[in-house]
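Margin note: ligand = nicotinamide-adenine-dinucleotide.
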Amino acid sequence: MRGLKIALIPGDGIGRDVTAETVKVLKAIERRFGAGLQLESLPWSADHYLQTGVTLPPDGYDQLRQFDAVFIGALGDPRVPDNRHARDILLGTRFELDLYVNYRPIRLLDGRLCPLKGRTPADVNFTVFRENTEGLYVNIGGRFKAGTEDEVAIQEEVNTWKGVHRIVRHAFGFARARGLKRICMADKSNAMTSGHALWQRVFRDVSAEYPDIAATHYYIDALAMYLVLDPGQFDVIVTNNLFGDIITDLGAALQGGLGMAASGNLHPGRTSMFEPVHGSAPKLAGRNIANPIGAIASAALMLDTLGLTDEAAAIDDAVLAAVRANEVTQDIGGNLGTREAGDAIVKWLK
Ligand code: NAD
Ligand code: IPM
Ligand code: MN
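Resulting structure:
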């Protein structure tokens, strides 16, 4: 018994639906492998905020640091139009726990799920590393004369050598560890000539330490195009916070949709956080419609990161088997509900 403590934050909307299925799968893993997983639910959500006025308690991030990993369903609710609770709980966790690596593998499980003509799993199999602690997400800026025709709105983008270097290094380290030979950095250094010149310099310097890996560069607009025209040319992509956000929704579409995409928010060696790429999809919430695969695959990333590689592989295999058997939700062509799709994955675990 290794006794790993996992915090669960189901959050809002379909975050709750998909977290329930993830818990089923983790409990089945526990029965089969006896990994010693201890799951503890935290109520932080829009409901909790609207009832108590508290997004998360003053020691919230310290609480999270006591766990081996954190799993989040999704945050976002139309009753909180300024998204305050999601900023504190989701972005706050990324920043306060310094989870600088947003790890988003894009893997097509079955050719029939890909919206591109004739593409197979061999064509869509790459990993995006999104910088996760700076860029345009630092929320530095302000509004002057707000609400008037003279309004000035400033939103600063922060790029630091340390921040860029550690994500670029992580991406190269991942490529080498996995025997991957190609890494592509995407920026907008033709227009953003200060901040993204730093990305250029760091990428060039780090790539010199990895002569075994072919390092290429695309401007982000061209990358978006190539992701559609020729996704097979990519093994690893590294980019900044905002561009990584955008291209991973595109990547999710290549996998069959937002319901399929998994992610980890990592600080290697420390408590990390795992979540599906999708949001709370309020219109689908509580209706037994949402696809739980992105969430369940995120739990597999979590177990893999915690060293439970057999357990993680068992989940990935079960998800693949359920997809091949078309025992899945409607968004990817099945006819099951969220709960039945979760049950199918549990069944394939056996
Ligand atoms: P969304 O990902 O919630 O949904 C967009 C669309 O994608 C949905 O309408 C649905 O058609 C489809 N979709 C998403 N997940 C699905 C699933 N599991 N199964 C089937 N279909 C699925 O994005 P949005 O509509 O832009 O945002 C809704 C709310 O979620 C907002 O408040 C937003 O800020 C928040 N959000 C949160 C996270 C997060 O918690 N990590 C991520 C993205 C968006
Ligand atoms: C994601 C989401 C978040 C982000 C939102 C909810 C702030 O879109 O995890 O991709 O932009 O990072
Ligand atoms: Mn996003």
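The first helix runs from residue 14 to 33.
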